[in-house]
């Protein structure tokens, strides 16, 4: 009998970038043999309409002092406003 993998660490929703706990998410899509978990039905539908758009490799973040500055601003905004991506629900 084969054991199922149990994920204890959150995964990233490929559409909006939110952390998703696979054990608690009811929004799942299967694509090319992989399972992808989503925070909301809207993200799952967006993924299913064009999976390659969300699975393409993302460009690397800017380097140097400007890149570090932008990362700190993004982190600060997330802490203050509570959301770093689109509101999905």
Give the SSE string.
Answer: EEEEHHH
Rg, alpha carbons:
15 Å
Strand content: 15-25%
Low-confidence stretches: none
The computed structural class is: alpha+beta
**Separation of termini?**
39 Å
What is the overall shape?
A: globular
What brief labels describe this structure?
two-stranded antiparallel ribbon; alpha+beta; 89 residues; single chain
Describe this entry's structure for a reader:
Helix content is 36%, strand content 16%. It has 3 helices and 4 strands, in the order ββββααα. The protein has helices spanning 41-49, 51-55, 64-81, and strands at 11-12, 19-20, 27-31, 34-38. β3 and β4 (34-38) form a beta hairpin. The chain is globular and about 40 Å long.
Describe the SSE topology.
Layout: E1 11-12, E2 19-20, E3 27-31, E4 34-38, H1 41-49, H2 51-55, H3 64-81
Antiparallel strand pairs: 1-2, 3-4
Outline of the structure:
With 89 residues, the chain is of the alpha+beta class. The chain has one domain (11-81). It is built from three helices and four strands.
């Amino acid at each position: 009998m084969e054991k199922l993998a149990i994920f204890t660490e959150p995964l990233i929703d490929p559409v909006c970038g939110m952390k998703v706990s696979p054990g608690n998410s009811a929004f799942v899509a299967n694509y090319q043999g992989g399972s992808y978990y989503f925070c909301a039905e809207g993200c799952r539908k967006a993924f299913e309409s064009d999976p390659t758009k969300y699975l393409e490799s993302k460009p690397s973040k800017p380097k140097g002092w400007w890149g570090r500055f932008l990362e700190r601003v993004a982190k600060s905004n997330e802490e203050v406003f509570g959301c770093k991506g689109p509101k999905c629900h």
